[in-house]
Amino acid sequence: MNNDRKRIFSIMRADLIMMNGGRNNLKLIVLIMCLTFGAMTYIAPFMAILLPPLMSFFLVPMLFGNEMKYHCERLNTVLPVSRKDVADSRFLLTMSLYTGISLLFYVFMVLAVINQQHQGIILFLSSFNAPYAAAFSAGAVIISGKLRKYFSNVGKSTGEAKTGGIRKAGMKEYIRAVVVSGLLIFLFLLVFADLLPTIPLLEFVADLMRILGNAADGILLFAAFLTIAALSVTYRYICTVCEYEDKEL
Amino acid sequence: MKKLLGIAASLLCSAAILLNPPLLSARAEDIVFPSGVSQSDFEFLLDFQENDIDMAEKKWGATAIGAFNADEVLCTGYYACTDAALNAHTDENSVFEWGEVSQTLIWVSAMQLWEQGKLDLDRDIRDYLPDGFFRHLTYDEPITMIDLMNGTAGWQESSSQIWKKDEASVMSLADELQAAEPLQVYRPGEVPVGSLYSAAVAGYVIECAAGQDYCGYVHEHILEPLGMEHTSIAPTHSDNPWVYEQRRKMKTYEKGAALTDKGTCLNYLTLYPAGSAVSTLPDLMTFSQALLDEDSPLFQSADTRRELFSATSFYGGSDIPLSAHGLQCQEFAVRTYGHEGATAASHVKMLLDPESGLGLVVMINQSDDDNHYFLDFPEWFFGTLSSQKYADSTSKDVKLSRYYLPAELPRTGILKFITFFNAVRVEHVQSIGSGAYQLIYDAEDEYGLSDVNKESKKRLIKQTNFNAVEEGAILMGTEDYNDGTSVLSYAQLVNMPAHSGVLEPRYTAELCLFTAYLLLAVAAVYLMLIRRKLKKHNAYSPCKGSAIMKAGQTAWLASVLILLITYTVYVSSNGIMSSAVSAFIGISQTICMTVCAAAAISALVGVLSEKRRIFRYITNALGNITVIAAITVFEMYKFR
Q1: Alpha-carbon gap, residue A144 to A152, rounded angstroms
Q2: Which of B421, B507, B522 sits opposite A207 (nearest CB)?
Q3: What is the pTM of this model?
């Protein structure tokens, strides 16, 4: 393992230690979330689709809330690490956690679908693949946007930091998360129920989504969503690194 | 007040059904239709529809329905308004466009000429037409009248301007046919395409074989002998002044959340034999009755009529007919022959059962077919095709898992990608032998009267003695040809005539290519944004050949934008694309392809000559090659 990688992993380890301190008990929150959504997914596999967008609203404040609260982000400026290393490590950590938990819930969802199929309920995995990919991609884009915002706020005395972290911001975030997830799901259902108004461009997108969703059990649409999300995350990552490196701290 | 009356009427009807079954009891002289429903019950159902659903005129466009046998009209119904603003109610003088039902006049004319020995149905039609009439034929195989009847001449639907708004711009049939000649994309005799062009060619063959223009021939040999005074077949309705006037009074409606007035929707079909007939309900019934009549006045011999109803194409290799000398076959509880037609203004169904001698005609002035009389009443009349009818002990469930592209849609040229959007996937079906299949559905969920709740529906089925079946079936057939073409005949919905699809074995691969092509456009946008950001922060370091690679990325985006323009034009002009627009699109895509080729070469040179940033060169080369491949495979450059 070369030195760059070692540095990045060290920062990630330090972040993981930090986030379990103070009032933010990450392990407990993740456990509660997994149990609640796991149970909901078992009953209704579609519930798993709600998790990635919801998680995307909480993950960044949850991971870096302590740092924002105690202004310890300035610590990084005196450590022997480059700003790019800090940005790299945090993108990597957040995205890995997000992808890991999402993957876990995808497996839950698949098992729940198979279980319900065994009980004689007619369900097709293909109907879940594409919506899950859409939800996951939307979540990844939101997380990258939040990370960018977090890095651009580093060094500022933000309202969020002043008011004591994620708990007070949590309600707002929660409402926003529910509204955005609801809207996304509603739009998705409109597209699949063929209820969108007949504007050619929308029709094109709807038709495209329909054929990609139908072909190869929805894998093509799955891949398309992931590609768009990857492009968007990459763009935000580059913006973050550029902006963070030029920042006066 | 009117609304109150409507509600009262609907309550009365519901009460009648609930409390007073004898109301529906059959008259002594009642005819029982193939569905098991008696004539009086059928009449009751017609009126029940009107009364139960509050104010028919608020729900539908003008609707006319008639049931008959060869000797008499059994019942008729006229509902809603031809012009709701003027409160002009539908009646026997209301006119409707026949759409593709007009083609039955061509096939009857062809059989008349065949009977007289003036037309050989198996001879190459080019023997009847002027020399060099077709200029874009791909195959040397003869095209026969039977091919035109089956729709298997091989032409894809014309994307030329075959519907015109200006009466004066309509040219002679021969000129219009030559101007609109589409590409011949299938070998004659293989793929049935419901092409207007193909039918119009048949009309011109009639003209040449009879030595008389088609319009004059039909008037002299069909309309006049039958006394059809309220029928016009000329593209501008100029052959019948009464119809000309009536047609201009008629309004078309669209049923959405609310009924929308679409105006007169007057369009003139230049390939007029294929779909420009306009008539009243009584006139279409007169024509239909003449087809049911064993001693039809249309033919000199009863054998000719029998020949007309004999099958000319089948579901796969089975003996279940798909069409009979141009008449579409549709399977209900009994087999029916006839046609379905649609224009921007009307939808029409003509269904005939020569065995029982009964027929049904439904005509609506709606741009869509969402009308209970149109969708539901054929089944109340002819019954439901049971899954047991063609199944036997050898029938088994099979999984085909194949993709078929609708034969009606463009197979080549800049609109080819549209066809991919409408692919049909056939999965779990039941094989009934010889390449014929059936798709089984729960009939109870599909029975008509969709505005009536399920309980009322069940009561109606019981009280009208409708022969309900547990499982209904939609027939399908596949046929493989020596040249590798595989054709699927299928109905898209219950009680709809069959369409055709052509097997696309590389569908998933081509769809992957198309997806990659679209995603590259998204990537191009992000690459532009990233470059801009890096430049702003002085972090951008261009590599060798980056200018041409940048141009290539712009071409990825431009190509997809042109594709979106193509789609928008296609949708907003109902599938018609002028040659100027086609040329613009084709040339633009060719330019994009050329730029991508230059960028791909530049990237490949970079791969070979540079030692750093190899990944960047490789991804650029792959991106450009993907776009070139997509433009080539989907023929986005090909205009004519």
Answers
A1: 12
A2: B421
A3: 0.80
